[in-house]
Amino acid sequence: MQLEPLDKATLPKHIAIIMDGNGRWAKERGQDRIYGHHEGVLSVREVVSVAGEIGIEYLTLYAFSTENWNRPKAEVDALMELLVATIRQEVDELNRRNVRLHVIGDFAALPQLCQQEMQEAIDLTNKNNGLNLILALSYSAKWEMINAIKSIAQQALDGKINPNEISDELFHQHLCTHQFPDPELMIRTSGECRISNFLLYQLAYSELYFTPIHWPDFRREQFLHAIANYQQRERRFGKTSEQIQPSEHAPK
Ligand code: FPP
Predict the structure, then answer these.
(1) With 163 labelled, which of 130, 148, 180, 212 sits at a CA distance of 20 to 30 A?
(2) Residue 55 burial (CB count, 10 A)
(3) Neighbouring residues of 9: CB distance < 8 A, sequence distance ≥ 6
(4) What is the spatial distance between Cα 228 and Cα 153, in angstroms, rounded to a whole number?
(5) Nearest by Cα to 16 from 214, 223, 235
(6) Superfamily of domain 9-140+182-232
(7) What percent of the chain clears pLDDT 70, i.e. is strictly above it?
(8) Number of alpha helices (DSSP H) and beta strands (DSSP E) in the chain
């Protein structure tokens, strides 16, 4: 698919992706799961470059969930090593592409080396003003929301806010994504149709796109296809179709 079919005016600003299916992709090829994660990195690279190229402003990738800590130790260790190696290898390319890296999640739970490499890459890319690449690492939405609630409750106890003033906006300010707009589009690969503790608050009005394609096969064409599909949807936010597109419903 070429870029032409995409309407530049209605591109989503923020796309979030649950990159799923690495393990099954590898098993289908008689390989071990780690091989699938390595191939998944190639999809990450391609999706990041296409996103930057077409002018997406924010791309959030669910790279490691809180629940992923429960996987076999060998796989967790391999994933952490892969993250470190990938970030080390890609930081120059991120700078060349004007990509700014961010991490959301329980940063302190990551191995020391992973924290160091991520922090270094965050610092080295923090002047870039192109695509914001947000890696969700040791992240879960329930963890994030409980932290937000604790912090708001503490402010109320300290007398800094009145509980009656707690609003959507205030809650947002206490989430790890407070500096980013909510995603307009959430993509999940591999045929699973669930949200799996990802951005539960921020996805309230996102368009959801599920594809049976496993993450290592999700490349440029599949990414553009998902965006084109999003652009065909009517986003009503609780309103009626007539309110959104009055001219189309006007009497002829
Ligand atoms: C889900 O597939 C994938 C993950 C838990 C890890 C995603 C990590 C990468 C793509 C590599 C590193 C990423 C970056 C950003 C450098 P799965 O293992 O759950 O697959 P399965 O459902 O088939 O078992």
Answers:
(1) 180
(2) 12
(3) none
(4) 42
(5) 223
(6) Decaprenyl diphosphate synthase-like (3.40.1180.10)
(7) 97
(8) 9, 6
Summarize the confidence of residues 22-40 as an average pLDDT. 98
Tell me the residue ranges of DSSP E strands in 46-204. Answer: 58-65, 100-104, 132-139, 185-188
Joined together, the tokens standing for residue 95 give: 């700078």
Token readout for 89 is: 């290898």
Residue 241: what pLDDT? Answer: 83
Q: How far apart are alpha carbons 17 and 44 in whole angstroms? A: 10
pLDDT in the model for residue 100 = 98
> Does pLDDT of 251 surpass 80?
no
**Distance in angstroms (rounded) separating the CA atoms of residues 252 and 241:** 17
4-26 mean pLDDT: 94
Q: What is the pLDDT of residue 235?
A: 78
Of ligand 1's atoms, which has the minimum distance to the CA of residue 26? 23
- pLDDT above 80 for 200: yes
Q: Is the pLDDT of residue 252 over 60?
A: no
Between the CA of 252 and the centroid of ligand 1 the distance, in Å, is 52
Which residues are catalytic, by number? 20, 68
- Segment 110-161, tens digit of pLDDT: 999 999 999 999 999 999 999 999 999 999 999 999 999 999 999 999 999 9
Residue in 17, 18, 19 to alter for ligand 1 test, most ligand atoms within 8 A of Cβ: 19
Instruction: Give the ligand 1 atom nearest the CA of 65.
Output: 5
Consecutive H or E run containing 25: helix 22-28
Alpha-carbon distance 202 to 171, whole Å? Answer: 11
Ligand 1-lining residues (CB < 6 angstroms): 19-24, 33, 37, 40-41, 44, 61, 63, 68, 79, 82-83, 86, 135, 190, 215
